[in-house]
Every structure is written in structure tokens, then in C-alpha cells.
Amino acid sequence: MSIVTPMLGSWEVPRIESIRTLESRRVATLGVPGLLGDLQQDLGTESVVVEIRGSLHGDQARDDALGALREKFRAGDPVDFVADIVTATELEQVLILGLDITETNDAADSTRYRIVLREYVEPPAPPTPIDDLGADLAPDLDLLAELGLDGLELPDLLGSIPALGNPVEPMRPALARVDQATRGVTDTLLSGLKGALGI
């Protein structure tokens, strides 16, 4: 059985004192009136959490390790992770959630570290925009439309359409009577207005 050296990206995790994982399920507890106990609804597993504790000795080892760790931590990007303890899981990439550094006087130039990692799960692809729905069917739909329209005699579908004439013609007699009735009124008003203005 080969021993897998714990690696965080391309960085070999040094002087590990302990490494542990926490795996748990999301379970919703539903209380039902009148039922003895609760219903449990399994919502799947949570992301695996890995905690690594270790120590660093010497200024150079401390500076190198912390420089590599802090760079990955601040970037916030998922990094590859391998270790024996996660062999049976599907853990491939992690996010660095926490980085705890403690300098102690237990030994000269001794620094203890604690790294908390959480399994990274790739988010699902965004849904297809509505404009793109059926975009790959456009050529087929165009062909079907052409075939359908070629087989139809559109003038026959319209049937008989009545001829539309000039709509004013039937109204001419009524308009002539209105003109005669208002002609005298207009002349009277104009003559009174002209007299008032002294024209």
C-alpha cells in the first residue's frame, strides 16, 4: 500500500501532526402533529471538511510555507488536494476556508498551523437563455414553413371580399342639406362681426 503525500495544489503540506475529516448529511426534521417522533428528510451530503494541523520549525520553513498558503488562501480559488484520508471520497478540489497560525515557545522558532479545507463542488451551468431555445431547429422550421406555404393557395383561403367604394358618396345628400342650413347662419355671423369691427 503506497502512502499518498498530502498535497495542496503543487505545495506539499509539511510536518503534519494530525489530519481529520468531517462528513455529514443534511437532514431536515419535520414535526407532524399527532405523530410520535419526527419525520426525517434526507437532503444529501454536505461538502467534506478537512482539518490539517502541523508545525513549522525555522524562519525559512515558516516563511516559505506561510507565503505559499496565504497566496492560495487570498486567491480564493479551488485547489487540487490529495491525501490518504480522502481516498474513499470523491474529493478532488477544495477551498481554503481557514488558516490559523500560532507561534509558541515550546521550542525555538516553532510555529503551529491549522488549515481548514472544504470540498469544492462545481456550480451547475446557467440555464439556456430563452432567445437560444430552438435555435438549432431554425433551419428545419424554415423548411417546414416553406413547404407548408407552397402547398396553400392563399387567395382561395381569403374567399370573396366585398368591393369597397368611396364611403363619402352615400353621405353627399345629407352633407348638402347641412351646407344649405348653415349657409345663412354663417353669413349673419360674419356680417355682425364685420360691423362690430368696423370693416
Please tag this protein with its features.
7-stranded antiparallel beta sheet; elongated; 4 helices; 199 residues; 9 strands
- Label the overall shape: elongated
β-sheet strand percentage: 25-35%
The number of helical elements comes to 4
Structural class: alpha+beta
Distance between the termini: 124 Å
Q: Note the run of SSEs as H and E.
A: EEEEEEHEEEHHH
Low-confidence regions: none
Strand order of the largest sheet: 2-1-7-8-9-6-3
Give a short account of the largest sheet.
Answer: 7 strands, antiparallel
Helix content: 25-40%
The residue-averaged pLDDT reads: 79
Count of individual beta strands? 9
Rg, Cα atoms, Å: 43 Å
Write the layout of secondary structure elements.
Layout: E1 7-8, E2 11-12, E3 16-22, E4 25-31, E5 38-45, E6 49-57, H1 59-75, E7 79-82, E8 93-104, E9 110-119, H2 138-150, H3 154-158, H4 172-197
Structural description of this entry:
This protein has 199 residues and is an alpha+beta fold. The chain is built from 4 helices and 9 strands, in the order E-E-E-E-E-E-H-E-E-E-H-H-H. Strands 2-1-7-8-9-6-3 form a 7-stranded antiparallel beta sheet, covered by helices on one side. The longest helix has 26 residues, at 172-197. The protein is elongated, with a radius of gyration of 43 Å. The mean pLDDT is 79.
